[in-house]
Amino acid sequence: MKRVGVLGAGSWGTTLAILLTKKGIKTVLWARNHKFAKQIRENRQNTLYLPGFELPAALEITSDISKAVTDKEVILFVVPSHGLREVAKQVSVALNDLSKSPNLPYALVSASKGIENRTLLTMTEIMEEVLPSRLSGRVAALSGPSFAKEVAASIPTAITVAASEHKLRKGLQDLFTTETLRIYTSFDLVGVQLGGALKNVMAIASGISDGMGFGTNTRAALITRGLAEMSRLGMRLGANPMTFAGLAGLGDLVLTCTGDLSRNRQVGLKLGEGKCIDNILRKMSMVAEGVKTTNSVYAMADKYSVEMPIINQVYRVLYQGINPKDAVNELLTRPPRRELGDILA
What is the pTM assigned to this prediction? Predict the structure, then answer.
């Protein structure tokens, strides 16, 4: 795989584009906004989302999506989850134009973390629904504990790529592996994507706790019980329960709930300090996926009759305006129960 199109010039998309280009892979980075694409192309740096990291001279930047996907062996989606469907539609149009795209991509990879609000679909499910049917079965997901800034700085990191086909998993593992980025493989597309999406909601909960001045005991309890909720929903949807003990589950959960670079934890911190969600989001330049994902997961818990008390309280804080103190009180006054038995409940 020597030709890759990276869709999305945020911090993670830019990092992955840099990583691939440095491996000698012909890479095109697509930015939706023409002026932004021109700016980072001329400056050779993404000062808005990944300041301090020079873009390799060989990395091509464009705002023309046809140029980004035509004749590519791998198309990597790294856009906000709520925008993935629209981008996938644009890709579908480009790929259906056989005069521009005679060769179909070998793999379509989602590095976006979220659940679509309206449909409750994962990112690869949206891709399967929107992209040309002849590409069915070529989708994959890349997820795990990875702050873009640290990966860009060559700090040792391990993440997971999930796909249904062994050959596809192995090819993508080889594609993304570097001296400092270790890739593990998984067949569990559902579990890997649920882990990547739900941990953002739990990070908001963890941030709320820290913002209210609670200690590490409370954070540890939230992480552990949050993992139980993630596992319950995952098992209900057919995921492998062991996925949630791995990089895409517990690994990403710990990182996002404790790391200062976590945007979702930062949202929670400000909520715990008494700030309004609308004002918090207005001042952010990057997307905190957990805010929209909370809405989706709350609906999924109801649809599939899965008990998710932490998710419920985060939803109430974000969308019903209840005081975080009241949310904490409701969690603490729930009826006592066994610890492990209810994971399967």
Answer: 0.94
